TrEMBL record:
MF term (GO), any: homoserine kinase activity
Originating organism: Faecalitalea cylindroides
Protein name per the record: Homoserine kinase
PROSITE patterns, per the entry: GHMP_KINASES_ATP
Domain GHMP kinase N-terminal: 57-134
Length: 289
């Protein structure tokens, strides 16, 4: 049996719209074994077919390696919520790719896996950290994926998870077609500083960098709890952003006391689900059972 473990991810990271993502130490687990017939367990009935993203990733990897798709049993074990901005679809895609590679005895390197995952997902900002771990910057260059890992300090986080989903397609509809030139300049400064703060652990500047012009001012209106949580985080100088396209929000700090304060405030005033997380140094990996 092949077991693949894939981390949840937080894309955009506020100022890194479509280019920056980080792996979280919150893993989904996928089990693969030979089977006379095609079977999927551990997901809603509507995903128990060949359109399941795990199977899509597996089959596309087989096509890439020019081997036949085997019949198999897939079991999914995850509590990463879907359509909440935590990379649930990326965990499925990456799991399928890594399982197919392991099934046929490891022919691919991680950049090849990233290429396949990006072709399925459409962009690399979630799948890159899911494969490599840490935080990753990425972009497309004439159809080729380019990425760099960002070594991160030991940041801790609190994922705040509303009880409603936001579809990425809907979240993209609220975005503007253009932004002011002066705002674009500011965005570059904030994004470059954000990355440096992750690497250096500069807590003085880190919360100040979380000032986005590209998506959060528009998507925040889809998350009814955002304004209050944002204001509270700002009052205690705590970095916070919308994870992916939402509805999850993520706060991060080296100071766990601030995160404890936020957690107590969430319990008292918001009553939503939450989970303590940290940046995972490890991307997806294989275990054999």
């Amino acid at each position: 049996m092949i077991c693949v473990k894939v981390p949840a991810t937080s894309a955009n990271c506020c100022v890194g719209f479509d280019t920056l993502g980080m792996a979280l130490d919150w893993f989904a687990t996928f089990y693969f074994e030979p089977n006379p017939e095609f079977v999927i367990e551990g997901c809603p009935d509507e995903f128990k077919n060949e359109d399941n993203l795990v199977i899509v990733g597996f089959k596309k990897t087989c096509d890439y390696m020019k081997v036949d798709m085997p019949t198999l049993k897939l079991k999914i074990d995850t509590d990463i919520p879907s359509s909440r901005g935590l990379g649930s679809s990326s965990t499925c895609i990456v799991a399928g790719i890594m399982a197919a590679d392991a099934w046929f005895h490891g022919q691919l390197n991680k950049m090849e896996m990233l290429k396949i995952a990006t072709e399925i997902e459409g962009h690399p900002d979630n799948v890159a950290p899911a494969i490599f771990g840490q935080a990753c910057t990425s972009f497309m260059d004439d159809g080729d994926v380019r990425m760099m890992m960002i070594p991160c300090q030991n940041f801790k986080g609190l994922a705040m998870i509303p009880d409603y989903p936001i579809q990425t397609s809907e979240a993209r509809k609220v975005l503007p077609q253009t932004i002011d030139y002066k705002d674009a300049v500011k965005q570059v400064g904030y994004a470059l500083s954000f990355v440096q703060c992750l690497s250096s652990g500069n807590e003085l500047i880190f919360p100040k960098t979380c000032h986005d012009f590209l998506h959060e001012p528009y998507r925040c209106k889809l998350i009814k709890e955002y304004a209050e949580i944002h204001d509270y985080c700002k009052s205690i100088d705590l970095a916070m952003w919308i994870s992916g396209s939402g509805s999850t929000m993520l706060a991060m700090s080296l100071d766990e006391k601030k995160l404890d304060m936020l957690q107590e405030w969430i319990v008292k005033y918001c009553g939503m689900s939450y989970k303590k997380v940290s940046i995972s140094t490890k991307g997806a990996y294989i275990e054999y059972e």
